[in-house]
Each structure stands twice: as C-alpha cells, then as structure tokens.
Design goal:
Largest sheet: 10 strands, mixed
Organism: Marinobacter qingdaonensis
CATH class: Alpha Beta
CATH architecture: 3-Layer(aba) Sandwich
Structural class: alpha/beta
Distance between the termini: 37 Å
CATH superfamily: Ribokinase
Number of domains: 1
Protein name: Phosphofructokinase
Number of strands: 14
InterPro entries: 1-PFruKinase (IPR022463), PfkB_dom (IPR011611), Ribokinase-like (IPR029056), Tagatose/fructose_Pkinase (IPR017583)
Family: Belongs to the carbohydrate kinase PfkB family.
GO molecular function, one term: 1-phosphofructokinase activity
Strand content: 25-35%
Number of helices: 10
Shape: globular
Helix content: 25-40%
C-alpha cells in the first residue's frame, strides 16, 4: 500500500457526548460519552491506516496533554512525527443529539511559538522523499498565520509530491495560492470562499470551476446528507449516500477524504473517479452511524457501498437549480 503523510496544525481532544435531545439551561444526561484525540489529519490518517496504508502523522502538538495522542498513535499504527510545543491541545465538546444535530463547543488550545513553523518544516523535509502523497488538514492554532499553510503546500510541491488540502477561511485562501492538487471544502466553506451563500448545485459548480481554474486538479464539495459533488480531470460526478440513521456527523468529512485518497492511490481498474467517489461516500455514510472515524471493516459496509449512487453531473435527472 501507499505511504501517506498527514499534517495537523491544531489537534484536539474531542469530548463526544450523545443524548436524546439537548435542553439548554437544564441538566442533560448523556447516553454515551467518549474522549478521543482528534484533528482532521489525525482522523483521516486513522482511516487510511485501517485501509492498509503506512501513515505518518505530523504537525504541532501541545506537550502538556500529548499522552492521549501518543497512545492513539501507538494503538492505530500511526508513525508519530509531531513537533511538540508548549501548552495544551484544545478540548472540543461535540454534542450529538439522536436526531442527527451536532453542536460544537471548541476550546482555544495552545498558541504557536514563533519558531513553530520553521521547526515543523525542518522535521518534514527529510520525510517528504518517502511519501506518496501529503494531506494538510484542519484549523490553525493561535499566533500561526494563514500564510503557514501556503508555506507547507509549497514545501511539499518542491519535493515533487502531490498535496491535498482540507482547510477553511484564510487558511484555504492561503493554501490555494500555493497550488494544491486537491481541495475538499464543505458547502459552508466553499460559500465563504466564494463570498456568497451557494444555494443551488449550479452555484456550487461555478465556484468549484473557479477553484479549478486556479490550478487545482480536484475539488471535492461535501454537501452533508445531499452527498458529494466531485470535479476533476475525468469530469464531474455527484454521489448520493444510502439512507442511514445518523448518530454523529463528526469525522464524516475526514472519512470521506480518506476514502478518496485511498482510491486515488489504487492502480487497478476500480480506481475510476466514479468508483473512488462511491467508496468514499459509503465510508462517510458508515461513519455517521456511530461516534468516531469510519470503519472500512464494518459488517454493513458492502451493503452501504451497493446502495451508494454516483452519476455524471449534470444529467437529465440532476437539476442544477435544485435548492440545497
């Protein structure tokens, strides 16, 4: 399998709480609670390792509460190349109601020291030669400018390696300026980038087209329950996930991205854009049925894949003016 490096600049300990319904101002009892190390690159790396890839995780990690991350990396066979910095990784609270609504309460986390980026670049430089692809994903810690993302994308490109980006707001703008190979905004993130609310598929396609015109090979737009729009050199496809009972949408986008990267790295006949998108969408659908990242070995995964639909977009059955 492939060698993959993921970069997470602002990891978190996610406190996932499940309950029937949140009643603000009242005492709420959870049906399940779990505290888990997280961060977009870490989440995607876990799924990729479960798919058989050799995954190295890197980025910045607060040394004050690094131990849970170190245990996770060991348990999930992730090679740890994080740069430790002073301070505590943020603690995020994810409240998942049984109807599928998720409320996020995100903590501030550590402030990146002035030398953090240069230390990380020094750590990454010797690793890049051995990687097949690099994923930069997630938010920025305090005091780390958005230009850091552009520097990291440029570092990877100069090493001659493909780089995928999952970022938002200023970090997305900065990363795009350096020319990543693929980006994965969700609908809200793409709307912010476009400067206006995107309410139809045609509007999403127009914004994604502008991203691709800037040199991005693939644009993957996640639409939540409405599926995914994928734009790339093989055309445009829309996937529709199978109906599932949603427990938590946390990690669904990271699992989707891991599935697409997995498909991208395959060399057999099943590696078409359509097959890659179907696999990734089914993986995301598996993820939302429980807390945590997707499980490719789940007993119902084959059924989910069989019931995932992928069609060229637009076609006679896809109305681009349909509201999202």
């Amino acid at each position: 399998m492939a060698r993959i490096l993921t970069i997470t600049l602002n990891p978190a300990l996610d406190l996932n709480a499940e309950l029937p319904g949140l009643e603000p101002g009242r005492v709420n009892r959870t049906s399940a609670t779990r505290l888990e190390p997280a961060g977009k690159g870490i989440n995607a790396g876990r799924v990729l390792a479960r798919l058989g890839h050799q995954v190295t995780v890197s980025g910045l990690l607060g040394e004050a509460n690094a131990a849970p991350f170190e245990r996770l990396f060991a348990d999930e066979a992730l090679s740890d190349s994080f740069v430790r910095v002073p301070g505590q990784n943020r603690i995020n609270i994810k409240i998942a109601e049984h109807g599928g609504r998720v409320t996020d309460v995100n903590g501030p986390g550590f402030s990146a020291p002035a030398d953090a980026l240069s230390r990380l670049e020094f750590r990454l430089a010797p690793l890049l030669a051995d990687q097949d692809v690099v994923l930069i994903a997630g938010s920025l810690p305090a005091d780390l400018p958005a230009s850091a993302v552009a520097r990291l994308v440029t570092l990877v490109r100069r090493a001659g390696k493909p780089v995928w980006l999952d970022a938002s707001a200023e970090a997305l703008d900065a990363g795009l300026s350096a020319g990543p190979d693929a980006v994965k905004p969700n609908l809200d993130e793409l709307s912010v980038w476009a400067g206006t609310a995107l309410t139809t598929l045609d509007q999403v396609a127009e914004a994604a087209g502008r991203m691709r015109a800037g040199g991005v090979d693939q644009v993957i737009v996640s639409l939540g329950a409405d599926g995914v729009l994928w734009f790339g050199p093989e055309g445009c496809y829309r996937s529709t996930p199978p109906p599932v009972t949603v427990v938590s949408t946390v990690c669904a986008g990271d699992s989707l991205l891991a599935g697409l990267l997995h498909g991208q790295l395959k060399t057999d006949a099943a590696a078409t854009a359509r097959a890659r998108l179907a696999f990734a969408t089914a993986l995301s659908a598996e993820c939302v049925q429980h807390a945590g990242v997707a499980d490719p070995a789940a007993p119902d995964f084959t059924t989910l894949l069989d019931h995932t639909r992928v069609q060229p977009w637009p076609d006679d059955n896809n109305n681009g003016e349909m509201p999202l």
